[in-house]
Design goal:
Layout lengths: L2 E2 L10 H7 L15 H21 L6 E4 L2 H15 L4 E4 L5 H12 L4 E4 L10 H9 L4 E4 L13 H10 L3 E4 L19 E5 L10 E5 L14 H4 L7 H16 L1 H22 L4 E3 L11 E5 L9 H7 L2 E2 L15 H5 L8 E5 L6 H14 L9
Helix pairs in contact: 1-8, 2-8, 3-4, 9-12
Amino acid sequence: MKVYFDNAATTPMDGEVLNAMMPYFTEQFGNPSSIHGFGRKTRTAIENARKTVARLLNVTPAEIFFTSGGTEADNMAISQCIASYDIKHVISCEIEHHAVEHTLKVFEKAGKVKVSWVKTDDQGHIDLSHLEELLSNNPRSLVSLMHANNEIGTLLPLKEVGELCARYNALFHSDTVQTMGHYRFDLKDVKVHFITCAAHKFHGPKGVGFLYINHDHKITPFIHGGAQERNMRGGTENVAGIVGLAKALELCYDALEEHQKHIQALKDYMKKRLKDEIPGIEFNGDTTTAGSLYTVLNCRFPAHADAEMMLFNLDINGVAASGGSACSSGSNQGSHVLRGIGADMSKPSVRFSFSKFNTSEEVDFVVGKLCEMYKIKEKQTN
């Protein structure tokens, strides 16, 4: 058996998404900027996709800007917000995705902004009192806090943070890459100015995403050299990718509650089985239903002679999982997120992340392999 439990890194594309994209690789190949019939057809496809995304998020199509993915969208929001509003102070968190954390450190090193890092507890929850203190004691700020941590799954109270930012006239950007397609967003009901998306996190294609920009908080262009995306991002659009993104998000919304129930049950089942089978196992971050992303379970295993080889051993046993963010998995520095919450770095931690395509039989298989690694006799399951 081969088991893919690394869906926070990327997800398999849904067959319906691929079918929707295929015509734009073949007969519908026109450049959307061309005024002839070939171009008009692909332009229409892009604008229909924009309308679909806007409808699902309860915003206007003019507030959706397509990008190459979440990292570009985060960079665009941060850099152009700083430039457009002459922002000198940014509030973020040291367990953010590197697309945010590293970007802010570049701006800080260049002397363009001062960055204040809001405190978190040992589960990765933001200290809201400290956030308010930072907002009240500094000039108008940009706040950049992710909706769900990509490594440990801890959720941000998005609406509460939005209200706090509004009280202090702060601009609010949230990296929603891990939650887009997994929760319903009504952006008329949340005071957030910028959110981001990467289609491959919810069974769409790689290389495409979007940035939502609230219509009352416009920013200057990010990429120059073309009038695409209403002059905000030069370069010929990824037509097939954009079509695929909209289709994937639509499919997610159509069956969101059903998929959430299925995936949450898998997470709960795996957590229970691991607690039953492996003495001393712990979990990183908040793993409650209300406080965590239902697709992610980050496990801290007991110390083991082959701890550094755990991911490799899982891989050769047919199990795909992660030690942290897939965007930086080639580095050997260890997880900045786990260090940031004070987790015991001497013990091996593994992130398992689930999708609608996973099954309880796969959970049993993975738990069995882990028991073999720890030389534990597995208990019989019903």
